[in-house]
C-alpha cells in the first residue's frame, strides 16, 4: 500500500508551508529518512525526510505552491504500485461533448473526483440578502455573536483564531485593528502577516488627505495663500509604481524567506525607535590570544577559535550589567529576561536566518565556539529545528566578515537591541606609552555598532553598555576552557 507524504507542521503556530524544491523525481528510489523535498515556512526553511523507503510514485503539489499543514503532497510505495488515491477506472467522457471536448485539458485524478460546479449559487445572489447598515459603508460590517443562521455563524473569537497566527493577532492588538476587517489571502482566507501590514500601510495612506486638508485653513493666518501646493504632496506618500519590465529585464518572484525577511524588517522599523551608536575596539590582545592558541584549540576541540566567541562573551557580561538591553516591550509593559538567549545572524545564499544560542550566559569561550559552528553549519544545510530560531533576547550580526566597516542593523522584534560587528583588521592608530608620549602604532582594530530601541534604552545606557564590551575585549582576560 502506498504511503502518503504530508506537509509537516514545523512549529506550534505554523499553519502552512511552501514547497520550494523537490529533491526527487517520480520513479526515483528513496531510502527511509532521506531528504525528499524542501519547504519554507514563517519560521524556518528545512529539508523533509522520507517517512519510508520505496519509490516516489506521485508528486501532488508542485514546487512554489503553498499548502496547509497535513496536506498530502505526494506518495511513496513499490515501483509496481499505483499512486495513492489514483482512480481505478478512467472517467468516461461527457456524453454530449463530441468536438469541443478535445480542446479542454484532460482532467487530473483530483479534478476527476471533484463534483461538478453548482449552478444554484451565483455570487451576486447572496449579496442583496445580507443586511448591511447604510450609515458606515466604509467599514465591512462584522456580524454580532447573536443572529445565528442555521448554526453556521461562528463567534468573532473563533474566526480570529481560525484566520490568523499569534503574531498577526499581536500586530492587530497593538494597532487596534479588528482582524475581521482585514481581507485574508492565506489558506481558507487566513489573514497573513503581509495582509495586516498592507492594511496598516493603506490605512496610513488613506488618512493622509484628511491631515493635508487642514493645512489650507491655516494658510490665511500666516499670510500665505497656496491652496494648490498642499494637496500635491498627498500622492507622494504613496509608493511609486515600479517601472515596467523591459525586454532585457528578468522578473523573478520573491522566495518565501525573502518575503518573510522583508515583512519583518518593515514591521521592526515601524515598531522600534531605532538609534545606532558606534565604538572602535582595539582587538590586539584578543588577536595575540588567538595567534597563540588557535592551532591547539582546533586540534583539541575540533572547532576554530574565531573572534566571535570573545565578542559573544563580552556582550553577555555587559547584558548582565544592563538588563534593559536584554529585554522586550509588551504593550505598556517591559519584560526583563532572566536568561540570555543569543541570536546570531547567518547569511545564506538564499537569504538570512538567525539561529539562537540558548542560555548563552552559561557557556564558556569553548561552548560558544562550538554552538556558533554547529548552528551556522546546520543553518546552511537547512537542518535547523523551529525552536532553534525562536526565543532570542539579544542578537549579534557580523557583516564584517564581508569587509564592512560597520552598519546600522535593524532590530529583530520583539528584542530591543542588536550588535553589529565590523571587519577586524590592522590599522595605524595613536598609542600612548607609560610616560604619556604619543606615537603611531599598528593595532588590530574594528568597529562595533549597536542599534537600540530608544523607547526603552536611553543613549547614555547604550553607550555604557558598549563601553563595557569594549573594556572587556581590550583587556584580553579570557578563559578558553
β-strand amount = 15-25%
Which H/E pattern describes the elements?
Answer: EEEEEEEEHHHHHHHEHHEEEEEEHEEEEH
Supply the CATH class of the domain at 274-475.
Answer: Alpha Beta
**Can you tell me the residue ranges where pLDDT is under 50 for at least 5 consecutive residues?**
84-162, 210-236
Terminal Cα span: 55 Å
What is the CATH H-level superfamily of the domain at 274-475? Answer: Chloramphenicol acetyltransferase-like domain
Biggest sheet architecture: 7 strands, mixed
CATH 2nd-level architecture of the domain at 274-475: 2-Layer Sandwich
Mean pLDDT: 78
> What's the shape?
globular
Q: Compute the number of strand runs.
A: 19
Judged by helices, strands and strand pairing, the structural class is alpha+beta
Overview of this protein structure:
With 481 residues, this protein is of the alpha+beta class. Among the domains are: 3-82, RNA polymerase II/Efflux pump adaptor protein, barrel-sandwich hybrid domain (OB fold (Dihydrolipoamide Acetyltransferase, E2P), Beta Barrel), CATH 2.40.50.100; 160-212, Dihydrolipoamide Transferase (Irregular), CATH 4.10.320; 274-475, 2-Layer Sandwich (Chloramphenicol Acetyltransferase). Helix content is 27%, strand content 21%. It contains eleven helices and 19 strands. It has helices spanning 109-113, 126-129, 156-163, 166-174, 193-212, 215-218, 256-271, 284-301, 308-321, 365-380, 459-475, and strands at 3-6, 16-22, 29-30, 35-40, 45-49, 54-59, 66-68, 72-77, 274-282, 327-330, 333-336, 342-344, 346-348, 351-353, 356-357, 394-397, 417-421, 425-432, 438-453. The strands form five sheets. Strands 9, 12, 15, 16, 17, 18 and 19 form a seven-stranded mixed sheet that branches. Strands 1-8-6-3 form a four-stranded antiparallel sheet, with no helix packed on it. A hairpin with a 4-residue loop joins strand 4 (35-40) and strand 5. Helix 9 packs across helix 10 (365-380) and helix 9 (308-321) packs across helix 11 (459-475). The protein is globular and about 85 Å long. The two termini are 55 Å apart.
Amino acid at each position: 500500500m502506498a504511503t502518503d507524504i504530508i506537509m509537516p507542521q514545523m512549529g506550534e503556530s505554523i499553519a502552512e508551508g511552501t514547497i520550494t524544491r523537490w529533491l526527487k523525481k517520480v520513479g526515483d528510489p528513496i531510502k527511509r529518512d532521506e531528504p525528499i523535498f524542501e519547504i519554507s515556512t514563517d519560521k524556518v526553511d528545512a529539508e523533509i525526510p522520507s517517512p519510508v523507503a520505496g519509490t516516489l510514485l506521485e508528486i501532488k503539489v508542485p514546487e512554489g505552491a503553498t499548502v496547509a499543514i497535513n496536506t498530502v503532497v505526494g506518495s511513496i510505495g513499490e515501483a509496481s504500485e499505483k499512486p495513492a488515491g489514483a482512480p481505478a477506472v478512467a472517467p468516461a467522457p461527457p456524453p454530449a461533448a463530441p468536438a469541443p471536448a478535445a480542446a479542454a485539458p484532460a482532467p487530473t485524478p483530483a479534478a476527476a473526483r471533484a463534483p461538478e460546479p453548482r449552478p444554484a449559487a451565483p455570487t451576486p445572489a447572496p449579496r442583496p440578502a445580507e443586511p448591511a447598515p447604510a450609515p458606515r459603508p466604509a467599514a465591512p460590517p462584522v456580524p454580532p455573536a447573536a443572529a445565528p443562521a442555521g448554526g453556521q455563524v461562528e463567534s468573532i473569537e473563533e474566526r480570529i483564531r481560525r484566520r490568523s497566527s499569534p503574531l498577526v493577532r499581536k500586530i492587530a492588538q497593538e494597532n487596534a485593528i479588528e482582524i475581521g476587517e482585514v481581507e485574508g489571502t492565506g489558506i481558507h482566507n487566513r489573514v497573513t502577516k503581509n495582509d495586516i501590514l498592507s492594511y496598516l500601510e493603506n490605512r496610513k495612506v488613506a488618512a493622509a488627505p484628511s491631515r493635508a486638508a487642514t493645512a489650507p485653513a491655516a494658510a490665511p493666518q500666516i499670510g500665505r495663500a497656496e491652496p494648490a501646493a498642499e494637496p500635491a504632496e498627498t500622492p507622494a506618500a504613496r509608493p511609486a509604481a515600479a517601472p515596467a519590465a523591459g525586454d532585457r529585464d528578468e522578473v523573478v518572484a520573491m522566495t518565501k524567506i525573502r518575503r518573510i525577511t522583508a515583512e519583518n524588517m518593515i514591521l521592526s522599523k515601524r515598531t522600534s525607535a531605532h538609534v545606532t551608536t558606534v565604538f572602535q575596539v582595539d582587538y590586539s590582545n584578543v588577536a595575540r590570544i588567538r595567534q597563540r592558541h588557535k592551532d591547539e584549540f582546533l586540534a583539541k576541540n575540533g572547532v576554530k577559535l574565531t573572534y566571535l566567541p570573545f565578542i559573544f562573551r563580552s556582550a553577555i557580561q555587559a547584558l548582565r550589567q544592563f538588563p534593559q538591553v536584554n529585554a522586550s516591550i509588551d504593550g505598556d509593559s517591559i519584560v526583563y529576561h532572566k536568561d540570555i538567549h543569543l541570536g546570531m545572524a547567518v547569511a545564506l545564499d538564499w537569504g538570512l536566518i538567525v539561529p539562537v544560542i540558548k542560555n548563552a550566559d552559561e557557556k564558556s569561550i569553548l561552548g560558544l565556539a562550538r554552538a556558533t559552528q554547529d548552528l551556522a553549519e546546520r543553518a546552511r544545510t537547512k537542518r535547523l529545528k523551529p525552536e532553534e530560531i525562536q526565543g532570542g533576547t539579544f542578537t549579534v550580526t557580523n557583516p564584517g566578515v564581508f569587509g564592512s566597516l560597520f552598519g546600522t542593523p535593524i532590530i529583530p522584534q520583539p528584542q530591543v537591541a542588536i550588535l553589529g560587528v565590523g571587519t577586524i583588521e590592522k590599522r595605524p592608530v595613536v598609542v600612548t606609552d607609560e610616560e604619556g608620549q604619543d606615537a603611531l602604532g599598528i593595532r588590530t582594530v574594528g568597529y562595533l555598532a549597536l542599534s537600540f530601541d530608544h523607547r526603552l534604552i536611553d543613549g547614555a545606557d547604550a553607550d555604557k553598555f558598549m563601553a563595557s564590551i569594549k573594556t572587556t575585549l581590550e583587556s584580553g582576560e579570557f578563559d578558553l576552557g
